Amino acid sequence: MSVVPSVAADAAFVKSEPMPEGSKEVKGYDFNDGVNYKKLFESYACSGLQATSVGNAITEINRMIDCKLQPIPEEKAKGTNPNPGRPMTNCTIFLSYTSNLVSAGTREVIRYLVQHNMVSGKMV
Q1: Which UniProt keywords are listed (predicted)?
Q2: DSSP strand E in 1-124: where?
């Protein structure tokens, strides 16, 4: 039987600390419950570091969409429309992306967002 070097054991066998109150449990989506895209995307918020970032982005995008769909306050409705020729909305959303996304097959997503007035401006 081989002996584990102490430096490796000290790094690997660290005593766990209790999680802070209110922490989310890391847990993935259970596909045995069927595919519910809303719940699947919500599960990203507690599926690990990168998925959590995606989950946070989804939450923020949903907040922007909700704001955009709210009625425009009177004081804002009297202002100048920053997007002439497009309906005035309650939220300005900029889309920024790198040119490789256009050639990577996501140009249809970008086109859809612009075509359906889901973004106010874009920057490449």
Answers
A1: NAD
A2: 94-96, 121-123
- Rounded Cα–Cα distance for residues 40 and 20 (Å): 25
Q: Are the C-beta atoms of 42 and 36 separated by less than 8 Å?
A: no
Q: What is the rounded CA–CA span in Å between residue 91 and residue 94?
A: 10
Structure tokens of 106?
A: 């996501």
Helix and strand counts by DSSP (H, E) for the chain = 6, 2
Q: What separation in angstroms does the CA of 20 have from each of 13, 23, 116?
A: 21, 6, 42
Please state, in angstroms and rounded to a whole number, the distance separating the CA atoms of residues 45 and 98.
25
In this prediction the pTM is: 0.57
CA dist 88 → 59, 109, 115, 121 (Å) = 23, 22, 15, 13
